[in-house]
Fold this sequence. Notes:
It is a single chain. By secondary structure, the protein is an alpha/beta fold. Among the domains are: 7-90, Orthogonal Bundle (Fumarate Reductase Iron-sulfur Protein, Chain B, domain 2), CATH 1.10.1060; 271-388, Rossmann fold. Helices cover 55% and strands 7% of the residues. The chain has helices at residues 7-12, 18-22, 24-29, 36-47, 55-62, 69-73, 80-90, 95-105, 107-118, 121-129, 134-139, 170-174, 177-189, 204-208, 212-226, 239-253, 262-269, 288-294, 297-306, 324-328, 330-344, 355-364, 373-388, and strands spanning 153-155, 162-166, 192-196, 234-235, 282-285, 313-314, 349-352, 369-372. The strands form two sheets. It has a four-stranded mixed β-sheet, covered by helices on one side. Strands 6-5-7-8 form a four-stranded parallel β-sheet. Strand 7, helix 22 (355-364) and strand 8 form a beta-alpha-beta unit. The longest helix has 16 residues, at 373-388. The chain is globular and about 65 Å long. The termini are far apart.
Amino acid sequence: MPVFVRKIDLLECTRCGKCREVCQSYKCFMNESFSPRGRLKLIYTFYAGEITQSNSFDQRILSCMLCGFCQNICPLEIDLPMLIYKARADMKKKKFFYFLKYFSLYPHLFFSLLKIFRNSFISEKLIKKFPKNQFLQKYLTFKEDQINQKFLKTYSVVKPKGRVAVFLGCSTKYLMPSIGKSLISLLNKIKYEVILPEQLCCGAPLLSAGFKEDSIKLAKKNLEIYKAFNIEGVVTPCPTCAHFLRDVYSELLNENLTILNIEDLLNENLAEKEISMEQQSVCFHPSCHTINYIRDNQKILNLLKKQGFREIQQKKGCCGFAGLFSFLFEKQSMDILREKVLEYEKNDMIVTSCPNCIIQFKFAMKNKKIFHYIEVIEKSYLKGEKNAG
């Protein structure tokens, strides 16, 4: 058994079943082998040499959404997501996974091609030729221009109270740059100097597809880039990136980046609004990584209320994106999404903490107002400044 698979985790499971109650992928397949404890048993027997890799084994290991709910509720805090990462690293890779590898290593090439397709007749032809391919439809619907930035940029302020660096994440940089612009604007307004270094992928798609060594190399590059600056820490609008830069890098390299909670910085510096910002029905959808790893969903909700969204409600539950899951298990991903659409259809606006959740929701609810919480807080702040002036 490889040394990086902790035998104690594989043997300590008491089969209490708490993890099964919160596992979204188990609810999709309703089979014990698709539950967290079922996957744990499969990993143990795989490394013990009792079973070999097969399509059935692949399906169960690859269908884990890596959301962290099982670890969060486990009485023994067994880190199943990390064991899933490690098992995938030892599995024989499918050809499709090499697409994810090069996407992570060279995201600018992938999104540049996507932009060319999106702005030409090829886009319509591709969608017509592959009408059921949700990947194409999701990524060809975004019209914003990406942030074309390869080198260091600094956003200075007079008499800064501190200096932070921003890690945009691929979805923000290439599909929703308005989130990054709002984040930098807010940080400047609360008197923080902002450094925007060269932007690479955090490595989540790489590790999810089983390319452990490549993800380690990418992690080392990111650590080298950000630790070269004299900063208080790193701010990112993506909870998955935050989880990787802080928690997963610690597992891979025993070294990480200091991640600053955006809402902590804003709560300390933004005054509370007395008048409700929105009279419409608004819900807050925190992502799985926000709830289970960053664990700041309640802080974000409180900040939104403080900034005028008095009637906002928090609604938990996976949107169905889950990275690799939405590509390999499209039917199950869409089944989960349909449930959320029914739950949110009466709301006028959806505010979420994750750019990838926005991708998923915009695919299904094209006419719905869907924003990252950073965007609506900046809008609230600017409205307050205008009223004060």
